[in-house]
Write a structure and sequence with these properties.
Blueprint (H helix, E strand, L loop, with lengths): L1 E3 L2 E3 L1 H25 L29 H5 L13 H21 L3 H23 L4 H16 L6 H26 L6 H39 L12 H26 L2
Antiparallel strand pairs: 1-2
The chain binds zinc ion.
The site of zinc ion has 8 residues, from loops.
């Protein structure tokens, strides 16, 4: 049994509903991953096969199942359809089921599920295009803000201060990097990501996230230096490190802060 907004219900149908929703979110994440960097509209034109341009019917666009049924090929031209579509849909399904299991079938489960699926899309887009699109970070910011205003994600003051700190630190890093190094170490995408993360984390954990992401980034830069891949300029985007650090802070941030305070004051 599981607690839902409609009362206590059997868990299995709720998890099946969650999985269907998660797969649909994954399908939409695929649309974001392909269309946002190309600056294409999210609604028009309807999905087409990139090889033969034939329109994809709704029954060939069912998340996961259509890809399996068609053997990963376009119905018209038999061109292979990237396995990435089905992997993103499967990952989103698992993420959603996990979010409901961890946070409940309620607004928290929905908000964290959307956040993690959004982070997945952001990581893939940033790795390929060095972009953290506002079209993903701004809606997620409002998902977090609504969670603190209307639900019990965080007290709304904590969420707003967190957003301000995240926004401010990245803004300073952006202009500071420009002043000191003469090039942009951060972009506007990072600044809005900071505000989005802050609304979910509050200010202490936002600072911890930036610290962890910087450690991971430095570690990666060292590895690439050793492997002689060159670290001049930004050879790896910062977004994936931020995403990993954000997830670490959501699940372990408070424990890390408590542990650190314990070390300082034994
Ligand atoms: Zn085709």
């Amino acid at each position: 049994m599981i607690e839902t907004p409609w009362g206590i219900l059997p868990a299995i149908p709720i998890y099946i509903l969650t999985a269907i929703l998660g797969a649909s979110f994954g399908s939409f994440a695929n649309v974001l991953i392909y269309r946002l960097p190309a600056e294409l509209s999210l609604v028009t034109p309807p999905s087409r096969c990139p090889s033969c341009e034939s329109r994809i019917a709704w029954y060939d666009n069912v998340p996961i199942l259509s890809w399996l049924f068609l053997g990963g090929k376009c119905r018209s031209c038999k061109a292979p359809v990237s396995i990435q579509y089905v992997l993103i849909e499967a990952a989103s399904t698992l993420i959603s089921v996990f979010a409901v299991w961890r946070f409940g079938f309620n607004y928290s489960g929905l908000a964290y599920g959307l956040l993690f699926i959004g982070l997945l899309a952001l990581v893939i887009i940033d790795l390929r295009h060095w972009l953290l699109p506002f079209a993903i970070t701004i809606p997620l910011f409002f998902v977090g803000l609504a969670g603190s205003v209307f639900f019990d994600l965080l007290p709304w003051q904590a969420a707003l201060i967190g957003a301000g700190v995240g926004f401010g630190v990245f803004l300073v890093m952006m202009f500071g990097g420009k002043l000191i190094f003469g090039r942009e170490a951060m972009g506007g995408g990072d600044v809005v990501f900071g505000a989005m993360a802050g609304v979910f984390l509050g200010w202490q954990l936002t600072l911890l996230m930036i610290f962890i992401a910087s450690l991971l980034g430095t570690f990666m830069a060292l590895i690439m230096l050793i492997l002689r891949k060159g670290v001049n300029g930004r050879s790896v985007p910062f977004g994936p490190f931020l995403a990993v650090a954000l997830v670490v802070c959501i699940f372990a941030g408070q424990a890390l802060v408590d542990w650190y305070i314990g070390v300082l004051r034994p």
